[in-house]
Automatic annotation (TrEMBL):
This is Uncharacterized protein. PANTHER family: BCDNA.GH05536-RELATED, PROTEIN TAKEOUT-LIKE PROTEIN. Gene3D superfamilies: Haemolymph juvenile hormone binding protein. Residues 1-19 form the signal peptide. One of its GO terms (cellular component) is extracellular space. InterPro entries: Haemolymph_juvenile_hormone-bd, To_sf. Keywords: Signal. It comes from Pyrocoelia pectoralis. The keyword Ligase does not apply.
Length: 245
């Protein structure tokens, strides 16, 4: 074996050890009879570690979850294109893990994680063009805050183990997010007090139907953000270190 290959393997091993030391993720054995309870506390602890992100290992922060831009296509009830930017999802790092269900083998993993949070904020800049809701124009641009109260979320992850650089890593095959909440409050900021008042009235008076029509489209944003975070973790730390036998 050449010296170059040996040095490369050494540096890879050192980086993995250093990564584990810095992140200090709690591990849960596949064979643990109380594995789900172990995972519940391990994931809760991981939220604290990842709250501000770990730039050294390219792990994005959970507080807030950020996305530069997203386009929501026209659909039933909200028949105009929504161009979103500077998207922030705030407070997910403060969620409480209530329940974990897992199926873990040597080559596959499935997790179902239920969490709750008193308040989740969804903030973004928007551009609405040729936009009407219930016969009233809502065209324009500005920033909106959606406040979800008493938020319950279920996150499901599935993946398969792949070989990479002499180690085994989890590759996600599916990520699904679903959530419910007791109430949502829309707060618009356009720089025009009268327009803010109008938009707040339209969206808050009709929020149940608006949210029902937009639910699946907003879920796409959640799925994208959670996939990014989970993939960053699973591609960094070998499967056998996270879930030893």
């Amino acid at each position: 074996m050449s010296r170059l290959v040996i040095f490369s393997l050494c540096f890879t091993f050192i980086d993995l050890v250093r990564c584990q030391n810095v992140l200090n993720f709690q591990t849960c054995k596949q064979s643990d009879p109380n594995r789900d309870e172990c995972l519940k506390f391990a994931i809760q602890d991981a939220f604290k570690i990842l709250e501000n992100g770990v730039p050294k290992f390219n792990l994005p922060p959970l507080q807030p979850l950020k996305l530069e831009q997203w386009t929501i296509t026209a659909g039933k009830g909200v028949n105009f294109i929504q161009k979103l930017s500077n998207i922030e999802m705030i407070n997910h790092a403060k969620s409480t893990i209530r329940k974990v269900e897992s199926e873990i083998s040597d080559n596959e993993l499935s997790l179902k994680i239920e969490s709750t949070n008193p308040v989740i904020l969804f903030k973004f800049d928007y551009v609405f063009e040729n936009a009407e809701i219930y016969g009233e124009s809502v065209s324009g641009k500005g920033r909106v805050v959606m406040e979800h109260d008493n938020y319950t979320e279920t996150l499901s992850l599935t993946g398969k183990v792949i070989d990479k650089d002499g180690n085994r890593y989890l590759s996600l095959t599916q990520v699904d997010v679903h959530y419910i909440f007791d109430d949502t409050i829309f707060k618009f900021e356009t720089g025009d007090a009268e327009m803010d008042k109008k938009l707040n009235r339209i969206f808050n008076q009709n929020k149940e139907e608006i949210l029902e029509n937009l639910y699946e489209k907003y879920l796409e944003i959640d799925n994208y953000l959670y996939t990014n975070v989970a993939s960053a973790i699973f591609s960094l730390i070998p499967y056998d270190q996270l879930f030893p036998k």
